[in-house]
Amino acid sequence: MKTLNDFNFNGKKALIRVDFNVPLNDEFQVTDDTRIKAAKPTIIKILEDGGSCVLMSHLGRPKGFQEEFSLRHIVKKVSEVIGVEVKFAGNCIGEEAEKAVAGLEDGEVLLLENLRFHEEEKLGDKNFAAQLAKHGDIYVNDAFGTAHRAHASTAIIAQNFPEKKCFGLLLAKEIESIAKVMETGEKPVTAVLGGAKVSSKITIIDNILDKIDHLIIGGGMTFTFIKAQGGSIGNSLVEDDKLDLAKEIMAEAKAKNVTIHLPVDSVIADAFANDANTKIVDVTKIPDDWMGLDAGPATQAKFAEVIAQSKTILWNGPLGVFEMPTFAKGTIALGDAIAEATKNGAFSLVGGGDSVAAVKQFGFESKVSYVSTGGGAMLESLEGKTLPGIAAILE
Ligand SMILES: Nc1ncnc2c1ncn2[C@@H]1O[C@H](COP(=O)(O)OP(=O)(O)OP(=O)(O)O)[C@@H](O)[C@H]1O
Ligand SMILES: O=C(O)[C@H](O)COP(=O)(O)O
Q: ipTM of this model?
């Protein structure tokens, strides 16, 4: 696996695919700079070697040129985070980009305009990739968040750099963290899967059952499993067409010696609202017209015990409707337990869109071993898929 450390960038231009697909507010200010900070070590290493950096990224899903998706909006933030004044080219290919690249000196950083202003990016167009490839001596892929896309700048472009391509430090760290859970993790390995639906996690479950010792199931997914076992779930979220599947998963887990831990109690509500009336009941005895929206205290304690005994922990998906404070306690309790286990030496990886949001919101970011910068990319990795952005460097 070739990484940044296999190259000396002195006098070289590094063409780096980063994932600066960051959220902006109405005033086009960056509201979460995690992905920019995450790309910093790679940029700094190249500058310290005596090279220069040409950064390319997408932002959002524009249709042709749309000013609101211009990467110009983030130049100031990137300069601030990197600590170097970042130059900008108003197009990622063509004369303007080529001129800006030609004028770039060692120690300087240039950001190119949104790759997706050209539809060729998403089409994985070879000619477009070749145009981009002109901008660098060495191609560095550091965009884990976009590694599941077989686009021109993330995968196809690598063909133009047969001997001169490598993973950036961030992408290497993401690959290593996933491997720590899926391949080399110290036992017992525990996966916590929460979130809304079984259907969106089924491929993950299928893939990880061979690799883990404990599977904690929480969140909205719970109720499909409880109903499959004959429990009463009232008005809770359920996928009736997945009841047989839930039974199959339980059987498969048993056959593979994986212990499944389901909630035992639930915080139920008479409406999907923060100020709804609530009660704590046995998760298998939810009255009609009530719905389970969070893990109850007995569940929190039970899950904490499993987590405390785990040496490797993967967390994807919240345990309740954490966006509403009334139903955030289960997710917070789980975060506390994972933080404690991490302090005691366990390796913990958090990934997936909403769990990362929850981890940041409740301040667990610095208390777990690693928080992935990938949403879809992380989920596809857990599903066991080979990500095109990673494969292109390894080929
Ligand atoms: N008991 C529940 N009933 C209904 N919704 C729930 C329940 N528990 C959790 N949720 C909701 O599930 C949503 C997250 O589900 P999702 O499957 O998208 O999570 P994720 O895996 O973290 O993120 P993603 O799949 O986007 O990467 C949250 O918005 C949360 O409110
Ligand atoms: O935020 C993400 O998940 C990545 O930047 C990929 O974006 P996309 O889903 O628009 O391809």
A: 0.92
